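step=encode ok
step=design start
structure_in=
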């Protein structure tokens, strides 16, 4: 047998194997698509979703949006300035208090800075619980305890901030350059001195970035908290909906959008200057 024939015979099994792998991948992809399709149809049936119902209700949706809802009633602007300021106050205070508390907990939760492994696990578990309970649930719980008002919104956002920021800060601490830390420890520096000289300078850029990002999230979340009694524009929206004052609600939603955009612009500029 010539060398050419031998080479051809060796290539055949490899080509067959490649074709078989391609067929297996195609069958797997087809199976995945069938499963997704089946789950979609099942979910649509169980929820009563149908294209015909969607089309039949489209006219009513457009009538509500362009007749009852729009345009916003700008004569109510002065009435909504107070709730808008409350939204800013709630978001900012929750960010500051949540960031400070989260920074303390992050030093206990990070593997690089925690004084004891059991303390690290305990703090992480606590923050996981805080993070996985939705902000809206915290708002409802605090309304029961403290009644209606901006205090409820502030407390709910602080609790969720602790859960989110502690994890983010802990991950930042676990990614720092340990060479600087070990060098300080070798000189006999205390735990506090190591944190102040070797950890904080590396930690602060991420701390500032995440804190500003949380402020953006708080402005959005404060609207939902307000709708369950946490004050701010969310409470004004909820009240307007109950009284069928839809054009006032439209103005309140527009003000929320403006606040979110302004907050994002300011925080992005601050990040550029500080970090």
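sequence_out=
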């Amino acid at each position: 047998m010539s060398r050419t024939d031998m080479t051809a015979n060796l290539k055949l099994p490899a080509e067959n194997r490649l074709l078989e792998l391609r067929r297996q991948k195609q069958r797997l992809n087809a199976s995945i698509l069938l499963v997704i399709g089946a789950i979609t149809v099942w979910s649509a049936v169980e929820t009563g979703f149908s294209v015909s119902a969607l089309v039949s209700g489209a006219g009513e949706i457009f009538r509500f949006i362009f007749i009852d809802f729009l345009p916003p009633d700008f004569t109510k602007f002065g009435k909504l300035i107070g709730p808008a300021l409350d939204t800013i106050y709630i978001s900012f205070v929750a960010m500051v208090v949540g960031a400070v508390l989260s920074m303390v907990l992050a030093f206990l939760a990070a593997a690089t800075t925690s004084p004891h492994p059991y303390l690290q696990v305990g703090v992480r578990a606590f923050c996981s619980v805080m993070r996985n309970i939705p902000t809206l649930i915290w708002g409802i719980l605090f309304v029961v305890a403290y009644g209606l008002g901006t205090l409820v919104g502030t407390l709910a956002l602080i609790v969720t901030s602790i859960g989110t920021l502690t994890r983010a800060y802990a991950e930042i601490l676990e990614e720092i350059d340990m060479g600087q830390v070990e060098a300080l420890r070798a000189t006999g520096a205390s735990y506090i001195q190591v944190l102040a000289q070797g950890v904080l300078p590396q930690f602060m850029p991420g701390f500032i970035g995440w804190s500003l990002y949380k402020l953006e999230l708080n402005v959005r979340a404060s609207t939902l908290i307000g709708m369950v009694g946490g004050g701010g524009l969310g409470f004004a929206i909820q009240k307007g909906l109950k009284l069928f004052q839809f054009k006032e609600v439209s103005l309140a939603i527009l003000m929320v959008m403006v606040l979110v955009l302004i907050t994002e612009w300011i925080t992005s500029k601050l990040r550029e200057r500080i970090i």
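step=design ok
step=annotate ok -> The longest helix spans residues 3-47.
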